[in-house]
From TrEMBL:
Localization terms from the record: Cytoplasm
GO cellular component terms listed in the entry, alphabetical order: cytoplasm
Domain C-CAP/cofactor C-like: 189-315
Organism, scientific name: Metarhizium humberi
SUBUNIT field: Supercomplex made of cofactors A to E. Cofactors A and D function by capturing and stabilizing tubulin in a quasi-native conformation. Cofactor E binds to the cofactor D-tubulin complex; interaction with cofactor C then causes the release of tubulin polypeptides that are committed to the native state.
Protein name per UniProt: C-CAP/cofactor C-like domain-containing protein
C-alpha cells in the first residue's frame, strides 16, 4: 500500500480509538487514581499520534498535515472539555502545549496500539502527588457508577417478548452498545438521545436496528463501529466523525457520516451521505446509493455528498474496481419502503420485514 494511504488509515483508526477512550472517561471510577490513569493514557495516545504526524511529514502533503493537525487539536479540546466535567477545574486543565509532559512516551505501556481499548496502564504511579490529587478528586467529584451497576439493555433485549418491534429507552445509558442479538427489530426512541456519546453494534444476525431518531434529535455519534453483522438492516443515523464497518455480510446499512471505512465486507448495500471518499478494503459485492430522503436532516448539502466516490485500497489498477458499484434508481429501495415497511408493521416479523427490503440479497 502507498505510504500516504497506509498512514491515513492508521491515523483515522487511532483517532477513532482515542475518541472512544475520551467518551468512556466519565464511566471510569475516580477511586485509587483510576480516572487519572485513564486521562494520562489518552494524553499519551494524543502525544504519540502528534509525533507520528511529524515523522510522516516527508511523504504527506501540506494539506493532509493540516487536516491531521486540526484533528489532533479537536481531540485535545474534547479531552479538556471532558476532564473539566469530571474533575475539579483548579487541578485538571490540560493545554495542547502540555501534551507529553505527563507521561513517558518511550514506555511501551503508554502505546495505545499495544493495549487497544484499554483505559488503564495497570501500573502504579511513581508520584505521591498524583495519588494525592486523585484522593482530592474523589472527595470533590465522587465515584461514578461502575459498568456493572449500569442497566444491562442487552440482557433485557435477549428476554422473550411478544412484541415484534422492541424500543429500549437507553435513557439511563451514556453509550449505545448493542451486541450478541439475533432476530430482533430494534428502534431506538427519542429517550436515547442522551446516550450518543459513542455507539457500537456488534455480533448481530437477522436484526433490524434503527438509531436515526436519537442521533437526529439529540447529538450525532462522534464515532460509530459496526462489527460482525450478517443478514441485517442497520439504520445507523448521523455520525459526526468516522464510521468503521468491519465483517458485515448480506446486509443493508444507512448512515450519514464524515468518514466511512469498510473492511472485510461482502454483499452489502450502503445508503450513504458522506463528506469524504468512502474507503473499502478486502471487500466484495459492495453497492452504494444516496441516503433516502426520509433520513436527511436540515443543513446537509447534496453537493457535499461523495457517496459514489469510493476508494478501493486493494484495487491499484487503472479503471473501476470490480468490488463495488452504485445502485441505479430502479435497484435502490423505494422511499415508501423506508417510511412504511422499515419502521415495522403490525403482526409482521423481523424476517418478513427483512425479506421485503431484499435481505438476503437474491
Amino acid at each position: 500500500m502507498d505510504p500516504k494511504q497506509k498512514f491515513y488509515r492508521h491515523f483515522q483508526d487511532s483517532v477513532a480509538e482515542l475518541q472512544e477512550q475520551i467518551d468512556e472517561l466519565e464511566a471510569v471510577s475516580a477511586v485509587a487514581g483510576e480516572r487519572q490513569e485513564a486521562i494520562d493514557h489518552v494524553l499519551a495516545g494524543i502525544s504519540k499520534l502528534q509525533h507520528e504526524v511529524s515523522d510522516a511529514a516527508e511523504f504527506t502533503p501540506s494539506y493532509d498535515r493540516k487536516q491531521y493537525s486540526d484533528n489532533i487539536k479537536s481531540l485535545s479540546d474534547k479531552l479538556n472539555e471532558t476532564v473539566a466535567r469530571v474533575t475539579p477545574r483548579s487541578r485538571f486543565q490540560f493545554k495542547r502545549s502540555s501534551i507529553g509532559a505527563h507521561v513517558d512516551m518511550g514506555a511501551p505501556e503508554n502505546d495505545p496500539r499495544l493495549h487497544p481499548g484499554s483505559l488503564s496502564r495497570n501500573t502504579q504511579s511513581s508520584s505521591g502527588e498524583k495519588h494525592q490529587e486523585a484522593r482530592e478528586s474523589d472527595d470533590t467529584v465522587g465515584d461514578l457508577p461502575s459498568v456493572a451497576a449500569i442497566r444491562d439493555y442487552n440482557a433485557e433485549l435477549s428476554q422473550p417478548s411478544t412484541q415484534f418491534v422492541r424500543k429500549p429507552s437507553f435513557s439511563m445509558a451514556r453509550n449505545i452498545g448493542i451486541a450478541n442479538q439475533s432476530h430482533l427489530h430494534i428502534i431506538l426512541p427519542s429517550s436515547a438521545a442522551r446516550a450518543t456519546a459513542s455507539g457500537s453494534l456488534t455480533d448481530l444476525k437477522w436484526c433490524i436496528v434503527d438509531m436515526s431518531v436519537p442521533t437526529a434529535q439529540g447529538k450525532p455519534f462522534p464515532g460509530l463501529a459496526l462489527r460482525n453483522i450478517s443478514n441485517s438492516l442497520i439504520v445507523a443515523g448521523h455520525v459526526n466523525g468516522p464510521v468503521h464497518i468491519t465483517g458485515v455480510a448480506d446486509s443493508i446499512i444507512v448512515v450519514t457520516a464524515r468518514q466511512v471505512r469498510i473492511h472485510e465486507c461482502k454483499n452489502v448495500d450502503i445508503y450513504l451521505h458522506c463528506t469524504s471518499h468512502p474507503i473499502i478494503e478486502d471487500c466484495t459485492g459492495m453497492r452504494f446509493a444516496q441516503l433516502p430522503k426520509c433520513y436527511s436532516i436540515e443543513g446537509e448539502s447534496p453537493k457535499e455528498n461523495q457517496w459514489d466516490q469510493v476508494d478501493d485500497f486493494k484495487w491499484l489498477k487503472a479503471g473501476q474496481s470490480p468490488n463495488w458499484t452504485t445502485l441505479s434508481d430502479a435497484e435502490a429501495l423505494d422511499e415508501a419502503l423506508w417510511t412504511n415497511v422499515v419502521p415495522g408493521q403490525p403482526g409482521v416479523s423481523v424476517e418478513e420485514t427483512l425479506k421485503k427490503v431484499g435481505i438476503p440479497r437474491q
